[in-house]
Hints:
The chain is α+β, with helices and mostly antiparallel strands.
Amino acid sequence: xxxxxxxxxxYAELGSEAAFADLVGRxxxxxxxxxxxxxxxxxxxxxxxxxxxxxxxxxxxxARRAPNVADEGHLAAxxxxxxxxxxxxxxxxxxxxxxxxxxxxxxxxxxxSPDAAWPQLAPVLDEAIQELGxxxxxxxxxxxxxxxxxxxxxxxxxISDDTAQKRVSRALERLRSLLVTRGVTLSVPLLAGLLAERxxxxxxxxxxxxxxxxxxxxxxxxxxxxxxxxxxxxxxxASLPFKGFLAAGVxxxxxxxxxxxxxxxxxxxxxxxxxxxxxxxRPGTAPDTAQPPQARVTPDTEAFATSAASSPTAPASDSHxxxxxxxxxxxxxxxxxxVEYRGWRESRxxxxxxxxxxxxxxxxxxxxxxTWLQLTTRIEGFADTRLEWRPDRGxxxxxxxxxxxxxxxxxxxxxxxxxxxxxxxxxxxxxxxSDLTRRPGPENHExxxxxxETDAAGRWRIQRIAGSMLRHLYGSASHPDxxxxxxxxxNRIADAETRLRDSSWVFQLGRAVTVTGIVVDRDDRPVPGAxxxxxxxxxxxxxxxxxxxxxxxxxxxxxxxxxxVTATAEGFAPTTLETELAPDAPPVRLVLDRGRPLRIRVxxxxxxxxxxxxxxxxxxxxxxxxxxxGQTPPPPPIQVQFNPLTDALGxxxxxxxxxxxxxxxFHKRGxxxxxxxxxxxxxxxHVVVLPPALVVSGTVTDATSGQPxxxxxxxxxxxxxxxxxxxxxLDRFLLDFEGGTFRHAMEEAAIGGMANPGYLFxxxxxxxxxxxxxxxxxxxxxxxxxxxxxxxxxxxxxxxxPDQRPVPDADVGxxxxxxxxxxxxxxLDRRFTTHLAxxxxxxxxxxxxxxxxxxxxxxxxxxxMVQPADLSRDPTVRLQPWARIEGLVWQGGQxxxxxxxxxxxxxxxxxxADFDFEGFRPSSDAEGRFTFxxxxxxxxxxxxxxxxxxxxxxxxxxxxxxxxLDLKPGETHRVELGLNDRLVRLGLRLPPxxxxxxxxxxxxxxxxxxxxxxxxxxxxxxxxxxxxDIRAALAGAVHxxxxxxxxxxxxxxxxxxxxxxxxxxxxxxxxxxxxxxxxTMLIAPIIVPEHSDPSLIDLGEILLQPLD
Length: 1108
């Protein structure tokens, strides 16, 4: 018997009508059965659909685009898909209108008989099959539509009989889940029986003789009616940009010359659900239409849309914003300007790319119900400028806006490889850090990621960024054949902005390695087609490939050193290895096991299903990667993207999950996020409960007049165990409102890694004293707050530089408990808290606040730390020149290289103000020398950083105080360290009767310990920790981490002579460290003696005792 491919060839090349009739006869029952179900049993319409399908197939052959199929399953799959497509007038809403209650009732009801079940199943069966993955769909079609046994199914799919049976069973389970969402609940055995018995029914006997000639005639007489843009059947199957209708032997074809397809993103429906009547077109082409010119819509990889923008010549309406774009320096219109539209309706995102007309105008159609709108210009030569409105926060979208664009400051540089040679075709990209400084009006110069390519000489240039944004930039260079350059943060490198402006910045790519290996199953058989990734899922520098038919792979361009290697394949659980990559490293061997179903159901507190909930596999927070002696290292985190939405019954299934414990996060709008939930595949279904969100709302009024405060900021924080409020540094927790009212849903804790401690809300407005709310628990539901702000006296403060001239654009930070100010070289970090800034005259408005301990004023020309009372007496701040620190560090009697240092403010509370970890972290050179070129001229604490753990993408550090420094303005302070330090080794013995694993150990100087009577009383602990002597002692304590050795002992870095305590944390065997895991604290005193020999000091075995 000839194959389908041979029959198509005979028909196309030889004109064999008999061959085409044979092909139609072979697949007529399949097409007829699908069509009949799709039109609810209408026999006449089913005939028309079948004729259309075969006419389309014949037309492809006549047009010399004969389908090229390797096996019968591919043609069956296409016929099934195209039949569904032609019959897509079946209304989707009618198929999915089942309510949750009816679904639940259906689930609880006795299973219907086959005769009762089939009328429910038939209208939705083929649509559900189309939503299956290709492998599952082929398995169903081969088994039940072509009625092949498992041996034949396996042969068609290239797998064994047993594997074919398992694949069909799994496909049936997945099909059943899709049917449940359509209101049809059947057991797998009943579903399989119905498919075997009724999926294919015989077509009327006269159809075969009449339909084949008619289809062939139509194809030959109208060969150009439909010609797909791509060759081959498999390419054609992916899109098919048309619909055909046949009636009374006449073909009417709706053709589309060019189509543009935009995706839509909706967090309330599964992302895998296809849009109704969607036609996939080629990217980069615009609709061919006779309509008047509109603001042009172009595809964008970052944009999603459902409609094009309105014509700029149309009259404005309530749903339109007329945007006029002018050059700020000339006042002239900017023609044909591209504008990026990003809008949200609650959590639903809509995005598109617009283009203005030749007069510099763009009529923006604003989607109804928009709660947040961003419009960003992207014009070469002009600074990207963003307009932002928040109707949900009282900031209304106007009907017209004129935007005057300033010229961009050009930046540039060069990309070289590890040998110093220029690299052509490298990608150079920049983004910006957030700036939490409050800005008047909707305009700012924030932008989306900007990326360019280097030329043949390795040079690049960008001219789209405002000069005021350069200090906030961060960026890097990459190339697929090299390791990406280190990320630069302009704020943290003293001369970075200057070098970018004069195009002298050099990005150097690293030398890459090629990772080779093989993917096999548990029986040591190759797994062809497996996907292999080197690196984390989220890393831009990760590399991917596909294993060949022998399971082998080679991935160039990988970063050497510790890294993750992950393999995934259909039917297997993913696996991730942590390994050292090097040029001479042996091949990586990845062994895939069969996965197990992980079934999850998400419900609310009443037990009702939560559909559309986001389920995310946590690939980051997996605890420390280092282990204490005797502990088994935890497996590396699985590096796969698992992020589905729950179905109508709140369920989701990971069919091929690894048989191990993993952590998941769950979230749905209107509910509180639940994080770090440990789950493992099991027979039973895991149930996760999402609590309701906390909704805070109310009014903000003037305490004196009672009038609404027109504009204010609400900052979200939490109560710290030290008794002080802590304020979030995330921009999504700094909320600006207008109109005197606010409403906001808290759907996550303000601090992670611990039980939700509840919330504090701080309200601030110009010329008012800040107000901090009461503590609000996370489970209070709807909370109303009536905020009355007290007017405050405002002081106009002038900032003068060392030359006694006013200093514009100086950063001003107010030091309070928990303020978390971050000092950069010459600047304050605006990412982490709200700052003030001096204006063009070097002035800022300041309202005295009793909570403020100090006021910091920072600029590249100088630094000042002043008492608030001093500002009230004399509203002038005089900046002092920066100091400089030069150091020399020794280890074992020799200069120590690669020692890392940082600084702290010893006279300020913890978490009030600190130094940026990247900006103030010099490393000693080969001669042991290190430098802080810009140090505040105030008393500081010098700290040495000691690495305590390291894993791919993650390093932990311990702090070792190295002494107090009294710095003077403009002077250089020199310090020498480590001449008398010693290395210490010791063994740690558990107290009699105690078992477990020591998770960590440190050497610590005398540290205050709270009395046993208050250790379980949080309020008493807070009062105790706030005592000035306790706070000072805690800040000055030395903690030197101990590292486990291979012989089950512990070893320190350099330790100065003196008295210490060993502090160790004990965990029960088998318990992994993590949030909520509290170790038993053990302690023992030791003495590090004065010693003339710089070699290691062995203190022997130390017996630990429980703390108190």
